[in-house]
Design goal:
By secondary structure, this protein is of the alpha/beta class. It has one domain: Rossmann fold (3-Layer(aba) Sandwich), CATH 3.40.50.620. Helix content is 38%, strand content 11%. The protein has helices at 12-23, 42-52, 85-90, 100-115, 137-149, 152-156, 172-181, 206-218, and strands at 3-7, 27-34, 57-62, 119-121, 162-164. It has a five-stranded parallel β-sheet with strand order 3-2-1-4-5, with helices on both faces. β2, α2 (42-52) and β3 (57-62) form a beta-alpha-beta unit. It is globular, with a radius of gyration of 17 Å.
Length: 229
Amino acid sequence: MKKAIILLSGGLDSATLVAIAKSEGYMLYCLSFSYGQRHSIELEAADRVASSNDVTEHKIANLDLRLFGGSALTDDIDVPKDRTADEMVADIPVTYVPARNTIFLSFALAYAEVIGAKDIFIGVNALDYSGYPDCRPEYIEAFEKLANLATKAGVEDIDRIKIQAPLLQMSKAEIISTGTSLDVDYSITISCYDPDDKGLACGHCDSCQLRIKGFKEAGIVDPTRYQEQ
């Protein structure tokens, strides 16, 4: 069977990503990160997603991006709440973690070389999301080119390394509908940037608002546990 590295955060998008790769017949090697994020409870969700999909392997890489800070997710900066859709797309938000996807993809690339995988799945989304620079199609294309220039596998092997981003041009509602058709259990995922100690989502950060909007537009009941039901 063909092997794939899946970047798994434990959120809605990455859970859908696992289901898509599984439906396409890949052996799943999931990679999550403990990077000093304030919402580290997402790692528990990642473990639940991996366990429910009987993945071949699930690794958690440890690195501390709090060393640099510069983001509301890794520094003493308040997570923005109750922003309008226009405010979300006005500029790059403070929840952007500098170079995060480049770091994550680099780890995934090393993992792929070791196990002989040619496909790396990442759940980036250019629609219905804050304007992170490392979620754009041109970024994915550029990293795929780098992957094939900078690795032994890319230079010597016949098959090219591919960065798969199947959610890239989907709305949040389309992602949820796709995942639902593939039997994704969204109740075990969490997308919140500022959950409480019990794992309850705040319901007010950008990620929560986009999740709520997505379920509503998809016409599917949101199973998320919010602090204020």
